[in-house]
Automatic annotation (TrEMBL):
It comes from Helobdella robusta (Californian leech). This is Tubulin/FtsZ GTPase domain-containing protein. One of its GO terms (cellular component) is microtubule. Belongs to the tubulin family. GO terms for biological process: microtubule cytoskeleton organization; mitotic cell cycle. One of its GO terms (molecular function) is structural constituent of cytoskeleton. Pfam families: Tubulin (PF00091).
């Protein structure tokens, strides 16, 4: 695949660590050799035989990355390239403007210049470059603001390669009063420049009393499984074919129309007896998720579905086929389901998992919520000066409102 992963901010780096642990452990279980891994997510340096993850770790403070790296020897098999670790000492205080403009910070633009410089070098290290994925939150100052600026710079420099964002949305209650503004400002920029934005929603509406790194671990494992389910390469032994460019596949499936670039995703790797059970597990997960997003089964609408099955493709002598998936979905949605396109990819291996990525009205419900919450605050001028302090202007808000409102009218 030859892609580069950018991990941005605390959330992006913590999710990234779980993702690399899956690359270490299950890429091989999914039937790939270490050379295959090298074609996709890692690179071996021939001079010292060290294998490096193809990632760039970016954070505006070094605490999180330092503590992750302190544990890496226990946790991960390979190495992060030291020059690809880009940190500063001043977090962006949950403020999009502070991340995007860097405001009055002395190292103006530094983090962007350094990231793009290392990105160029990383791209040149591989034989081909097909695109990149970014992991980030949309409510932290770094995750929202630095990511917004980076997608502009990446798109400017790599106009044709694909760019997929894995954007973690916040708990509905309990993060910061700026979270809706940050999400609105970030998603308008990131949606514009990316081929697809995979919205990764917090599973529960309410933030646990103490959402510490360790409580995030389980959540991050689930998030990493979704990302791995979508991005790990597809093996087709019959045709001796290795699809190295899953990011391109995601872009082709979902970037068919500007209004359809928001994607949701869920995945299961629990033991299931047959593929039917796997599909049912995903649909049950969806039910819980929809409840949290205030979508009832009645108003939930699927528009486009990409299903990826990995493992024993004849599980219990019952192959996973499009018509089989269609039958289960029709049964589940009954008359409410229109005929929506289904893409199916399958990959033979010894470890079983099923992942689905889909466009649905859940993204619209989520966007409407942040739009409405932000507009209510903006109408009374709440917190706007916190952004103006770091060079943002009301124009930034106006253009984000306009962009999202226009998008909503097409969704
Ligand atoms: N799923 C998940 N969410 C996280 C994690 N860490 C933080 N968050 C969420 O991310 C949002 C805050 O973003 P962070 O990533 O902490 O912030 P940041 O990007 O480092 O930005 P600043 O610290 O403001 O500079 C909140 O909604 C948190 O609940 C994590 O490891 N996993
Ligand atoms: Mg931070």
């Amino acid at each position: 695949m030859s892609c580069v992963i950018l991990q941005i901010g605390q959330c992006g780096n913590q999710v990234g660590q779980q993702f690399w642990s899956l690359v270490d452990n299950s890429l091989i279980r999914h039937g790939y050799s270490t050379d295959d891994a090298d074609n996709c997510f890692t690179l071996t340096n021939p001079s010292n035989n060290q294998r490096y993850y193809r990632s760039i770790n970016i954070d505006t403070e070094n605490k999180v990355i330092n503590s992750l790296f302190a544990n890496n020897n226990k946790f991960l098999k390979f190495n992060f390239r030291p020059c690809n670790v880009i940190t500063e000492k001043c977090g962006r205080g949950n403020n999009w403007a502070m991340g995007y403009y860097q405001g009055r910070l002395s190292h103006r633009d530094d983090i962007f210049e350094r990231t793009m410089q290392e990105m160029r070098k990383e791209v040149e290290r591989g034989e081909t470059f097909k695109g990149c994925a970014i992991f980030h939150s949309v409510s932290g100052g770094t995750g929202s603001g630095v990511s917004s600026r980076l997608v502009e710079l990446i798109r400017d420099e790599y106009a044709k390669e694909c760019l997929i964002s894995f954007a973690v949305t916040p708990f509905e209650n309990g993060d910061t009063p700026l979270q809706d503004y940050n999400s609105l400002l970030a998603l308008s920029k990131i949606h514009f420049h990316s081929d697809a934005v995979v919205l990764i929603s917090m599973i529960s509406n309410n933030k646990p009393a103490s959402a510490t790194t360790s409580t995030f671990n389980d959540l991050n494992k689930m998030i990493a499984e979704c990302i791995a389910g979508l991005t790990f390469p597809i093996n087709d032994y019959e045709n001796n074919y290795l699809n190295e460019i899953m990011l391109e596949k995601i872009a082709k499936t979902f970037n068919t129309d500007y209004a359809n670039k928001f994607v949701s995703c869920n995945s299961t790797s629990q033991q299931f007896k047959n593929w039917g059970d796997g599909v049912e597990t995903l649909l049950n997960q969806l039910e819980t998720f929809n409840k949290n997003e205030n979508a009832t089964q009645e108003n939930f609408k699927l528009k486009q579905l990409l299903m990826i099955g990995r493992g024993n493709l004849q599980l219990n002598k019952e192959p996973l086929t499009k018509s089989f998936i269609n039958k289960i979905l029709t049964n589940y949605f009954q008359s409410r389901r229109s005929t929506m396109p289904i893409s199916l990819l399958q990959s033979e291996g010894s470890s079983t998992s099923l992942t689905m990525a889909f466009q649905s009205n859940i993204s619209k419900i989520y966007l409407e919520k942040i739009f409405k919450n932000s507009l209510e605050k903006f109408a009374v001028g709440a917190y706007v000066h916190w952004y103006e302090r770091y060079e943002a202007t009301v124009e930034d808000f106006h253009s984000a409102f306009k962009y999202i409102q226009n998008l909503l009218s097409y969704m």
